[in-house]
Amino acid sequence: MKLRVLRAGLLIAAVLSIPIACRRGGGDEILIGEYGSLTGTTATFGQSTNNAIQMAFDEINSAGGLLGKKVRVAVEDDQSKPEEAATAVTKLINQNHVVAMLGEVSSSRSLAAAPICQANNIPMISPSSTNPRVTQVGDYIFRVCFIDPFQAEVGARIAWEILKVKKVAILSDVRNDYSVGLQTFFRQHFKGFGGEIVAEQSYSEGDSDFRAQLTQIKSANPEAIYVPGYYTEVATIARQARELGLSVPLIGGDGWDSPRLWEIGGEALNGCYFSNHYSVDDPAPAVQKFVADFKKRFNQTPDALAALGYDAARILADAMKRAGTTKGDKVRDALLATKDFQGVTGTITINKERNAVKPAVVLKIENGKFVYMTTVKPTGT
Amino acid sequence: MTTFLQQLVNGLSLGSIYALIALGYTMVYGVLRLINFAHGDVYMLGAYAGYYLSRKLKGDEPSLGSALLVMLGAMLTCALIGVVIERFAYRPVRRAARLTLLITAIGVSLFIENTAQLVFGPDPKFFPSLAPRADFHVGGVRLTSEQLTVIAVSFLLMVLLRFFIMKTRTGKAMRAVSFNLDAAKLMGISTDRIIAITFALGSALAAAAGVLIGMQIPKIDPLMGILYGLKAFVAAVLGGIGNVPGAVIGGLLIGTSEVMVVGYLSSTFRDAIAFGILILVLLLRPQGILGRAQKEKV
Amino acid sequence: MKGFVLAIVFVAVLFLGNSLLTGGLLPGFSVSPYFLQVVSLAGINIILAVSLNLINGFTGQFSIGHAGFMAIGAYVSAYVTAAFGDRIRGALGMLPPTFQNSALLLIALGIGAACAAVAGFLVGVPSLRLRGDYLAIVTLGFGEIIRVFILNIDAVGGARGFSGIPRLANFAWIYLFAGATILVVSRIVRSSFGRTLVAIREDEIAAEAMGVNTTRSKVISFVVSSAMAGVAGGLFAHYLMYVHTNSFTFIKSFEIIIMIVIGGLGSITGSVLGAVLYIVLTEGLRQFAQYRMVLFSLLLIVIMIVRPQGILGHRELWSFFPRRRRVEPVPPAVAG
């Protein structure tokens, strides 16, 4: 008995003695924090973002660094859980002493982490949290993506102005704030145009059988279906819709943007539309260089989340350069003054609400190509 | 009416996948009284085994032969994985308290999921089409060849399993072990061997389900086993855990009722319905639909 | 009387300690907020683990729906402070702000715990007739149903999550309730009621034959345990200032079970140890990023193989020091 207790004790001691890495950002480097879902249900988005951020800072470092120093990213995994995001961010700020924060993809995790960054006066840039409330947390919280109302409006315009349809069904991801947000605002805008929502169905992230929802949607006879989700589910939805004889076009948002979309969905996606930040076929050298470099380094075409992560990192570096310091309040002011930044995802201006103002492009899917249709400029701000 | 029939077909094809996975749960539970939470992940590994095998066979036109080859290959791989899991994770704790066994199973499940995310990458993979495909129209109802394959193959495998358990010597030994492990041991049955065979069989069935769903969806990812595993487990309990026909009935019931709830009530309650039915059935019939009530000995 | 004084001292030490750790007492001295946050979250885990141990460890009823009751506590109490916070503060206008906040937190936690207890009663009465794995799967089912239900209530944010909760809880509050939970559970276990629970665990039929109203006892322990999970949820919400249903999936219930099994079922100190160890493991392995969960799951399997009965088994920590033994260890259950 004694021996076994001893053994168990030794085991605990071994675990406890795992050194807790705590390298401080010293004098010759700038330490930037990143928290993301490297594991868990949305690991694919977190890793994609993480790859692009690493690439952005490596490029900055090989071009001579920032403010005469090297930039290093401290990455923490949040297992796709909100409470882990809060812990990860607290650790990055207090143990690693990062000067700025990048993250998260999901609005729910950004919302859990944002109050902590705000309280510590650490500027945080979310690459792809689209819920309006994320940046409302405080004046240190920024984003470089669209917000839900704008992108939903673009979706509604695709249906009303490009496809000229009046009856639309919605199929959204009930567990995903991005999807629910787009659904809510799409309904609002489309009804505002005079359209009719004939059916609203939902699924949960990770589902792979959508036939029940689609059969029901089919019986409502829509002229188009709005599917504000991620490519991981959308491609399957398109396939199953076609199998059920539902041949109307699908409409979506930037969550669709991935090379995997066509790979999995195939011909079922022909004639579908989605709004995005940029077009991979955009001849702009910055875009082409980014796509080529990313392919070379990670052996895959970047998705929208990678492009946004890349821009978030570069906008942060740009703001620090303009501020001439890494002090939180100065960087915040510089971020707020960001105007016409030439990012991969478009020309970005940060407005008073700390949201990115940039045009959306409408893409049509034709035989594996995302064909550029038109650009929609944000109204209002 | 067409819509209803279409939903029925949808429900049956979903339900037969649940049933196939539920069989593995039920078999393992029958012999070890263990809820093998890693079973859903074995199903995922089956899908990936099929994916890599079919990539190896790339260049061949989709044909029935290569589809069969991929299926058998995946089943063999997973049977092996099942045996390894049993030998190295479950056997050492088999005699410990039930909860210990359960936590070990959760540990194995976490291990497979996270390792798979590292090895295969977390992004979804496209499962190539294995067999030539066709669509059928019966009235207004649409059927794809994949859906029919899923239903047909599932039933074939279930019938084979039933035959194996009821008619062969090994099957008889399996039933003996499930009835009373210690007594079976005393009767000269090599219980370790039987348990290993049970794991191999259950895992092979899960792999078949993985390949079938890969053909049908056709998207696979490292966490695809969590939700399906859980639903299949519910199906197994619903039918009466430890009971093979029960698992089939449970699977079909969960599949169709899920689809009907989405169709006629609200899709937001899809995940709740599986549990709702389960709770209702268990409260009325605590041993499950086909389960035998066990008299407790005093 | 002695107990009362001890309690006062405990509370005073906690709150003084809290202001010391956060740098409010001695200028220039404070503990890293990261460390404090990890310790605080460990405190919430202690409440969850010890309360679940009452059901799983002492009563022997296998429940895996604890996260559902935690969710109810979290959402209800968060809703109370968010929707009625100002009115309650107004009604307490004569008190200084610190006391207003404390009172508000207590009221919110109380309502949250009450709702969790009611839910526990509603779930417990029908399902506790079931045994073993059937009970397990039904509680898991109820936990998931609760989560799906909350996900569909727009007033608490639905899929967006519930944000804008004031940070009323801190290290001191969490450990105050952790201490209270440990105290209550250990008093229950040593009472005659507690002995009926252990009797049910060891042999339900024999207990019934001895005149124990097993259903009543099981439901009571289930309700008490649920209420405590509700308190833990309320503290969780008021500490992190944001809650989302993704925090309360069945995976969370599994985590709590892992804690009590690592520590040793039916041992209160074991549960505390398990909860702490769980946090130490997950945080200690943080530096391995993608490999963290792989290592964690491996360690979990190894711990189970090396020490299947948990680190302390059925025994309490102090029973390992023979000279100071005062408490009779609860006799271990027959394995299998």
Number of strands of chain A: 15
Tertiary shape of chain A = globular
pLDDT < 50 stretches of chain B: none
> In sequence order, what are the helices and strands of chain A, one letter per element?
HEHEHEHEHEHEHEHEHEHEHHHEEEEE
Instruction: Please give the largest β-sheet of chain B.
Output: 2 strands, antiparallel
Total individual domains of chain B = 1
Cα radius of gyration of chain B in angstroms = 19 Å
Q: Pair with the most extensive interface?
A: B-C, 46 and 49 residues
Return the CATH class of chain B.
Mainly Alpha
Number of strands of chain B: 4
Quaternary structure annotation:
heterotrimer
The CATH topology of chain B is ABC transporter involved in vitamin B12 uptake, BtuC
Largest sheet of chain A: 7 strands, mixed
In whole angstroms, the N-to-C terminal distance of chain B is 54 Å
Q: Based on the structure given, which CATH architecture of chain B is correct? A: Orthogonal Bundle
Low-confidence parts of chain A, pLDDT < 50 over ≥5 residues? 11-25
What share of residues of chain A is helical? 40-55%
Strand order of the largest sheet of chain B: 1-4
Secondary-structure class of chain B: mainly alpha
What are the defining features of this structure?
A: 381 residues, alpha/beta, seven-stranded mixed beta sheet, five-stranded parallel beta sheet, globular, B: mainly alpha, ABC transporter involved in vitamin B12 uptake, BtuC, two-stranded antiparallel sheet
Describe the fold and architecture.
The complex is a heterotrimer of chains A (381), B (298) and C (336). Helix content of chain A is 44%, strand content 20%. Chain A is of the alpha/beta class and 381 residues long. In chain A, the strands form 3 sheets. A 7-stranded mixed beta sheet of chain A has the order 7-6-8-9-10-14-15, sandwiched between helices. Chain A has a 5-stranded parallel beta sheet with strand order 2-1-3-4-5, sandwiched between helices. The longest helix of chain A has 20 residues, at 43-62. The termini of chain A are far apart. Chain B has a single domain (2-284), classed as ABC transporter involved in vitamin B12 uptake, BtuC, CATH 1.10.3470. In chain B, the strands form 2 sheets. In chain B, strands 1-4 form a two-stranded antiparallel sheet. The longest helix of chain B has 31 residues, at 2-32. Chain B is globular and about 60 Å long. Chain C is an all-alpha fold. Helix content of chain C is 69%, strand content 1%. The longest helix of chain C is centred in the middle third of the chain and has 31 residues, at 97-127. Chains in contact: A-B, A-C, B-C. Chains B and C meet through helix 4, helix 9 and helix 11 of B and helix 5, helix 8, helix 10 and helix 12 of C.
